[in-house]
Design goal:
The complex is a heterodimer of chains A (about 200) and B (about 290). Chain A has helices at about 10-15, 35-45, 90-100, 110-120, 130-135, 150, 180-195, and strands at about 1-5, 20-30, 60, 65-70, 75-80, 100-105, 125, 140-145, 155-170. Chain A has about 200 residues and is of the alpha/beta class. Chain A has a single domain (about 1-195), classed as fumarase, CATH 3.20.130.10. Chain A has a five-stranded mixed beta barrel with strand order 2-3-6-7-9. Chain A has a two-stranded antiparallel sheet with strand order 4-5. In chain A, β6, α4 (about 110-120) and β7 (about 125) form a beta-alpha-beta unit. Chain B is of the alpha+beta class and about 290 residues long. Chain B folds into two domains: about 5-20 and about 65-145 and about 275-290, Dihydrodipicolinate Reductase, domain 2 (2-Layer Sandwich), CATH 3.30.360; about 150-270. In chain B, the strands form three sheets. Chain B has a five-stranded mixed sheet with strand order 4-1-5-10-11. In chain B, a hairpin with a 4-residue loop joins β10 (about 275-280) and β11 (about 285-290). The longest helix of chain B has 20 residues, at about 40-60. Chain B is globular and about 55 Å long. Classes of the chains: A alpha/beta (about 200), B alpha+beta (about 290).
Chain lengths: ~200, ~290
Amino acid sequence: MEYYLKTPIPKEKLEEIKIGDIIYLSGIIITARDEAHLKALELHKKGEKTPVDFEGVGLFHCGPVMKKDEEGNWLVVAAGPTTSARMEIFEDEFIKAFHPAIIIGKGGMGDRTAKACQEEKCLYAAFTGGAALLAANRIKRVKEVHWLEELGMPECLWVYEVEEFGPLTVTIDTHGNNLTENVKHNVMKNKEKIIKNLKVEV
Amino acid sequence: MVNLEQIIEDTATQLLRIAATVLPTEVIQELEKSNEKTKGELGKSQFKAILENVKIAKEQSKPICQDTGLVAFFVRIGDQFPIRSKIKEILVNATKRATKEVPLRPNAVDMFEGNTKNNVGLRGYVPWFYFDLVEGDKLEIIAMPKGGGSSNVGKLKMLPPGKGLKGVMEFVIEAVSQAGSLGCPPYTVGVGIGGGEDMCMNIAKKALLRPLHQRHPDERIAKIELKLLEELNKLGIGAMGLGEGPTVLDVHIELAARHPASLPVGVVISCWALRHAGATIDANGNVEWHPH
């Protein structure tokens, strides 16, 4: 199934979507990688506010290449997804603290994230890794930037307005399914078989 | 008089631009073939996105991927080439320039001082250089930026020599299966066997520069390359790890002598965007761009 969604996305809508479905997302997505996750969670624990509201929008695992035009406006040069697995160690906390609707990245995420997605009604969807210009073309406006000085260009929070951002392949749905884990399980089974039958002839 | 230093700097800057923005023709062709071979819609959608993205990158001269990599140069210096000791400084300047001009993403992070914002490390190691001294009056430079995602899935193992070639092959299969979806497959896999713990990684990385489907001159190694290619493609990781389409585009092995007590194996994995660009400069400043 293909879905064209607009942020903020209601939870009921998210519950309709299954692994293997494709999403094109319009509205707001906010970039956050390792450092931004850590900083946002630290603020949350102290009871302080983050400069942006993640609720109902897309959280994008991405460290873009940006540049300023002559008038000082930010332009997106390249903005593909980064490997999401690095965020596995704190993504469940992040989902519980900030309630994003869709996490966008590449390479899929693990059990902890899938569990939080099920409990809090959140999706994980993969954008094709390395397809940084396709992604950049769907970003219509750079709305805000936060923590740029402190964290640097790849790690800070970029707030983008996007139009039909995708194709995003859903690999974690709100029902506890995880496509990446399914593939991984298969790969490990195949690997055992390959190694068992491996013959060396030179 | 030609300003040879300037020519080297300009050439290296341009090589970093080409590497970041134009995928080598042979890689594009291989990805097109992979697309044709892929049956499932999920896998096909990934190749479609990849190929469209590569096309836009070339047309707009923009980086294929936002991760423009950690910069490394393979440099072969002719013993008669007029500039030698200054080459490092010139290539460092080219890296700073390319960061602004292409632009490249600032990817050099100091443990204590943070991102250096110019892709040059504060402690003299980044960009990284592989220097080789050769006969003649030419200078060959290959720029090879490598992304973090696929670097993170590289692996080293010091095998007990008793495990032999079978142990080596098992480890390569293990390494790629663990890389799974994380390093942007389909992968090109470089394998270094022998040397010490650092040397096997070094030659594994160099192996990635060999043209796709060009086999190792030693037939025995060539045979293992083909065998590994076949077996790795049975893993079922597929395009971007979604389980459909090829997992590996090619496998290249480099072999070095080993210590009697060690059997080091290095596995260096490239994402689908196997990026590099090279040129040769002669003593008169003529630049010959390598086929790309």
